[in-house]
Write a structure and sequence with these properties.
Layout lengths: L2 H18 L5 H10 L8 H9 L9 H12 L15 H12 L4 H8 E6 L3 E6 L2 H7 L14 H9 E8 L10 E7 L5 E4 L5 E2 L8 H22 L7 H10 L4 H4 L3 E7 L2 E6 L2 E7 H19 L14 H18 L15 H25 L6 H31 L5 H17 L1 H7 L4 H4 L5 H10 L3 H5 L7 E5 L2 E7 L2
Antiparallel strand pairs: 1-2, 2-3, 3-4, 4-5, 5-6, 7-8, 8-9, 9-11, 10-11
Length: 494
């Protein structure tokens, strides 16, 4: 069949399928085209029928693709080689399971791997199928050769070169008898693993120069092919590249269907692919978006909507500032309720000075009387009058002193400095334990919220994780892809 005939057959099958199943939309046909492992829509009509019957969902399981690929690759293993003879997907799956039991390891090896080098000591292969990866990786602990699932193999093989190096000279008990090499297309990072899946730092001693050259040449050739397939397509944006890697878009034509949206998702650029919408962010952008998400959620549902204790985020300084005027008023209006009586000070200086003057005067009178009494008794008669006068004046001064002491006692009080010091001590106690203080003042949970440090609360919630759950509105999953050494985080939002 020549190229023209193939093109006409291709278009005819698509036209016939669309005519029969006119209820399917553009996105349905894109899905079915992707599921069809042929390059000429050989299975499109059968796929459309199964999709229309509901046997194939809008998000088909990997089992569907695996079954179709196996049928396409090994038709000779099936009793019926015409897919239309299978009345349902269930029948095809059953037939596929039976057929796979008949596919030998040697057949898988032959069809699923490229031998890039072999001599008496080494065999170097590039597995192109999961089955071949399991065959050549048998006996190792590589995730790419795990028999339970193919996701690891698919992930590595689409992002770079995966090679298996078999050393024929070593026994299977030697960890170096099989070595796995992975080198990414985007970053060029090289990783080597022995059979126990232990990463190797120095590989030179385990490989011959010929094998090393083969590895280098093979990688360069495969990368050149990878780059060539991307020419003229929308790979300039690393975010698009991250999506391409995540979506496993082998056909570069599909890349052009990724369209950047005008709106953002909490500041993150968004992209539409079919009926799917994704946000693609750097780590820093994702953190900022998560912060904004939590901030907006607080505005919607309040702090009480979070399983996060607001008591941890009560701002003591804020509470103290709010209560400073009240505390000051309380202390100045009723200092006796807060200050120690013994700390009172004398403030009327005039009374204090006058008292000191009178005490000095009294002392002088007493000393003069004592002096007169100490004289020779022959002079007492002569000094008696003076003594009486002095004693009388002393009595008067004592009365004045008593009155002044009473006045002075009445003038005792706490200084403004003492009151201010106590106010600051009171406020320090509030700062140290603002929650208990507010609760002692009768504040409930809602009243406490006015004192919450919102920024600290948001950061506390963010630090708990759950970035994927918050930003990926569709499935709550955070996916990551490395593009030229930068990690991008992908969130499906629709």
């Amino acid at each position: 069949m020549n190229l023209i005939e193939e093109t006409l057959l291709f278009e005819s099958r698509m036209s016939e399928a669309k005519k029969k199943f006119g209820n399917l939309n553009m996105y349905d046909w894109q899905l079915l085209d992707k599921l069809d492992p042929s390059d000429n829509h050989k299975y499109l009509m059968w796929l459309a029928r199964e999709y229309d019957k509901g046997n194939i969902s809008a998000e088909p399981s990997p089992k569907v693709e695996e079954t179709l690929n196996h049928f396409h690759r090994y038709p000779e293993k099936y009793t019926e080689r015409d897919i239309n003879q299978y009345k349902s997907l269930k029948d095809l799956v059953k037939a596929s399971q039976e057929a796979q039991q008949n596919v030998s390891k040697r057949e898988l090896k032959k069809t699923g791997a490229n031998k890039v080098y072999e001599d008496d000591s080494y065999l170097v292969i590039v597995p192109t199928t999961y089955e071949a990866s399991c065959f050549y990786g048998a006996g190792t602990k590589w995730c790419t050769a795990a028999s339970d699932r193919d996701s690891h193999f698919n992930s590595y093989s689409r992002k770079g070169v995966l090679m298996y190096i078999l050393n024929k000279d070593l026994p299977e008990t030697d960890p170096l008898y099989k070595i796995a090499l992975y080198k990414s297309y985007s970053g060029g990072q090289e990783s080597y693993y022995d059979a126990t899946d232990k990463q190797m730092s120095d590989i030179k001693a385990a490989l011959s120069p010929e094998v090393e050259r083969t590895i280098e040449v093979t990688y360069n050739v495969m990368k050149e092919s990878w780059l060539e397939a991307r020419k003229g397509h929308n790979f300039g944006d690393p975010r698009v590249e991250a999506l391409v890697q995540m979506l496993s878009l082998d056909d570069p034509e599909l890349v052009d269907e990724i369209m950047e949206e005008e709106h953002t998702h909490y500041g993150i650029p968004t992209f539409q692919y079919g009926d799917e919408e994704y946000a693609v962010a750097t780590d820093e952008e994702a953190d900022q978006a998560n912060y904004e998400y939590v901030e907006n959620l607080i505005d919607d549902i309040g702090f009480e909507g979070f399983n996060h204790n607001i008591d941890w985020y009560i701002d003591g300084d804020d509470v103290a500032r709010d209560w400073e005027d009240s505390v000051t008023e309380w202390v100045y209006d009723s200092p006796e309720s807060y200050l120690d009586e013994d700390d009172k000070q004398y403030y009327d200086q005039d009374i204090f000075n006058n008292l000191a003057k009178k005490q000095k005067q009294l002392t002088e009178y007493e000393e003069r009387v004592k002096e007169l009494y100490d004289k020779d008794s022959s002079s007492w008669a002569r000094d008696e009058k003076e003594i009486e006068e002095l004693e009388g004046e002393a009595e008067d001064v004592e009365i004045e002193i008593a009155d002044l002491e009473t006045d002075l006692e009445d003038s005792r009080d706490w200084s403004d400095e003492q009151k201010d010091d106590y106010v600051e001590t009171y406020l320090d106690e509030i700062r140290e334990d603002p929650v208990n203080y507010l609760k002692d003042m009768g504040y409930g949970s809602q009243e406490l919220e006015r004192y919450v440090d919102k920024e600290a609360f948001i950061q506390g919630v963010v630090d708990e994780g759950y970035r994927g759950e918050n930003l990926a509105q569709y499935d709550g999953e955070e996916l990551e892809e490395d593009v030229n050494g930068t990690w991008y985080y992908i969130y499906r939002i629709d």
